[in-house]
Amino acid sequence: MRVWMLVCIALCITAAPVSAGFLVTEICPDGYAKGDGDEYFVLSGTGSMDGWVITDGEGSVRFPPGSISPGSIVIAREGTAYYTIHGTYPDYEIYSTHPSVPDALFTGRFQMANTKDDITLLYHDSPVQSFSWPEDFIPGNGRIHICTDDIWDERIYKIGQSRFSPETFTAESVTLFVSPDSSFEVVDSVIDSTRFSLCISMYEFTHPELAESIADAAARGVAVTLLVEGGPVGGMSSEEKGVLNYLTNAGAAVYTIESTDELPARYRYLHTKYLVADEDTLLILSENFKPTGIPLPGTRGNRGWGAAVHSSGVAGYFRDVFDADLAGYDIHPYTPGTEPLPDTWKDEDVTVRFPAHTVYNVEVTPVISPDTSVLIPHLIQNAGKKIDLQQAYISPYPGGAHNIWLDYVLEAGGRGIPVRVMLDGMYYNTDGDTDNDEIVANINRMSKKDNISASARLKLPDEYITKLHNKGAIVDMKYVLVSSINWNYNSPNNNREAGIIIKNEESAEYFSEIFQYDWDGTSGKWEIGATKQIDLRYVLVAVILLLLFVIWQLKRRR
């Protein structure tokens, strides 16, 4: 008898796995579909779903007897509406719209309100989890709210956005460069050496010479794919249309990411500036593919930083980002028009000061907005020795709120860590009441009044640099940030951006000396002119010694 009882118990356990507990870990109460048919929530947990109920006080949802969760399940209001937005079907739908989607069981009227509602998860009528909005999170159209360790919305999500996690790689080598000095040579060299595939993600592209190099790559059999922002500030220029027309006709696959009347784009802007070559090289920079951003050799242009990273791991990471962006619902094949390729344009000739420099066995961490942009404030908060920050601009948050990234920088200064902040001084970054010149003045005022170890300067246009367009930082003479991420609210939270953090003292020294030159004109060993100056001094000493030797010989003969 006891044996049969044990067998029956075993059979029951096998037939209906005991639930290990469930939680609502994701919810979207305000979707894009008409009538919010795509609203959904995710229930995470493994095992039997018998006895589990979710309710909003007006209705409740449970599951057919014997339902088993493999780890997490998606429950949508309407499966068909969910599919039109997400491109996949949910695991369950509340209101039956598609025969292949299992129906959840509901009572009453279960529909999550857009702006205010309460949700309770019950197990055999006992509350397990409760939350509400706007108390626990701030709802919004297309907003996805995620709960991690009982904390909601550590990051802002919108429907369709990616969820990459931080990873760190060791690159075989990294070639460092700056605009206007050495960017064109490095960028053009990477394109020219590409053999198989070239994936380019760029906010704006108006550079005719780089377009010609890419067309040459396509002509020799390289598979070229270009993704650009379809609605940049001010609209797409005729020069950019000319470049896209030219590349499309040359065989490149060209796409835009942009909103439609039915659906907003996943990101406020695709503001990235990177390319992946042959899946083993990443080229990343602060500059767009424009004549001022990547000036022709020996030509005046923007100040910006860049790096060519030779690492299959780093390149593979960014290729995954590129593929995820290209797979979105907001991607549109570019339709070529009649605009011609722009004529060659360059600014005044200048003396090149800082050549490219290659470092080896370097630790590189990708930074992707909005997925992992939190790595930047973490870097600032953990600074222990020094921070040099060079940005096109720093803006207050919406409603005049403090820019929390700048607050972290000033907090470091308050701890006695030397901080230097350099911002662009162009008129459009200084003509408002809360922009770069006010920020510089406030930092310098706080330095004197509050004894904060911080100083700030504007970088004004000169005969060498047209404007400061960089978005970089050097921390503790060990870490370097090279990125497209501006210090405002939208760039880290709502845009698609890309950058890397390089952990390498030689890299920090390279960019630090360029920063120092921009700060006060001081030369360093990386500057070409400084090297020549040192050489001339040695020559002068040698000449003096030679003259003394000749004079000594003449005196001996007498």
TrEMBL record:
PROSITE patterns: PLD. Residues 266-293, 464-491 form the PLD phosphodiesterase domain. SMART domains: PLDc. It comes from the Archaea. Keywords: Hydrolase, Lipid degradation, Lipid metabolism, Membrane, Transmembrane, Transmembrane helix. The chain crosses the membrane at residues 536-554. InterPro entries: PLD-like_dom (IPR025202), PLD_domain (IPR051406), PLipase_D/transphosphatidylase (IPR001736). PANTHER family: CARDIOLIPIN HYDROLASE (PTHR43856), MITOCHONDRIAL CARDIOLIPIN HYDROLASE (PTHR43856:SF1). This is Phospholipase D-like domain-containing protein. It comes from Methanocorpusculum vombati.
